[in-house]
Amino acid sequence: xxxxxxxxxxxxxxxxxxxxxxxxxxxxxxxxxxxxxxxxxxxxxxxxxxxxxxxxxxxxxxxxxxxxxxxxxxxxxxxxxxxxxxxxxxxxxxxxxxxxxxxxxxxxxxxxxxxxxxxxxxxxxxxxxxxxxxxxxxxxxxxxxxxxxxxxxxxxxxxxxxxxxxxxxxxxxxxxxxxxxxxxxxxxxxxxxxxxxxxxxxxxxxxxxxxxxxxxxxxxxxxxxxxxxxxxxxxxxxxxxxxxxxxxxxxxxxxxxxxxxxxxxxxxxxxxxxxxxxxxxxxxxxxxxxxxxxxxxxxxxxxxxxxxxxxxxxxxxxxxxxxxxxxxxxxxxxxxxxxxxxxxxxxxxxxxxxxxxxxxxxxxxxxxxx
Length: 370
Prior knowledge:
By secondary structure, the chain is mainly α. The protein has helices spanning about 1-30, 60-65, 75-95, 100-115, 115-120, 125-145, 150-165, 170-185, 190-225, 245-260, 270-295, 300-310, 310-315, 320, 335-355; strands at about 355, 360. It has a two-stranded antiparallel ribbon.
C-alpha cells in the first residue's frame, strides 16, 4: 500500500495534466468553438438573473457575488472552470481508489471526463461551472474524510458546499464512499474494527454534511429573505416519510436498470450488452470474494462486502430517494465501470505477486489494497 501511494503521489502532476488534456479535447468544441471561429453565435452573453438560493444553491450566489464565477453565460469562462475541476476530480478519485496500471488510470480518466451526462449538463453553460465545482467538492469530501483521522469534519464541510452548488452530486459522493469501502474490504489484513470505524466515519461525514447543508440553507434564506422554489420538491428538502422510504429505494434500483437498459440515454445495443457484461463480471468477482471470505470464516467481512455491493445501485441513484430525478443526475453511474477497472487492476496485481513458498500459493485478492 505504501509503495502504491508513493507511486501515485509522484505521478499526481502527470495524472492532472493527462486529465486536463482529455477534458479539453472532450469539451473544447462546446466552450471554445466560438473563440476558434467555428461559430461566433455560440457566445451567449446572457446575464444569469435566477437567484440560485431559491433552488437551495446559495453557494452559487456567493461565488457569483465574489466574482469568482461569471454572472454572464460566457462559454469560454465556464469552460475553464469545467476543465480544471474535471482534471482535479480525476486526480482525487484516483488518489482514493489508487489504480496502479497505466491502462486503468487512462480508462478511469476517460470515463470521468467523457461520461454522457457531462455533455448534457454543460449545455447549461453558466451552470456548468457550478456543476463541475460541485462535483469537485463531492470528491474532496470523500478524500479528506479518509485521508486524515478527523477528516470527517472537513469532509462534511466540503459536502455541504457541494450540495450548496448542485444537490445531485450527493449521489457521486455516496457512490465513491461505497466503492472505497468495497475496495478496502478486499485487504486481507484489515481488522474488523477498522472496517466498522471506516463505515461509521464515512456515514458520519455524510450525515453531518447533509445537516450542515440544510441548516445553511435555512440560515441563508432567513438572512437574505429567500423562499425556496417548489422545483422538484426542493421546498420540502429533508422531509421524507419513513413509509415512503421502501418505495424510494425501489426507485433507485429501477433508475439504475433504466440506465443500464438505455432508457435514460439512447445507447447502441452493443453498449447495452456491454453494460450487462460489466455487471456480470462484477457479480462473479464479488461472489468469488464472498465465498473466499466465508471459507476463511471472516463472516462479518463477507456479509458487509455483499451488503455494500447490493446497495451500490442505491448510491449511484441516491437522488431518487429525494425526488424523481432525470438524466442530469446519473453521472454517479460511471463508477460501476471504474469499480470493474479497479477489480481487474487488483486481479492483475495479484497474478503478478503469486509466489510459491514452501509449497504455499498466495491466494487471489490477498494483496488487494489501495
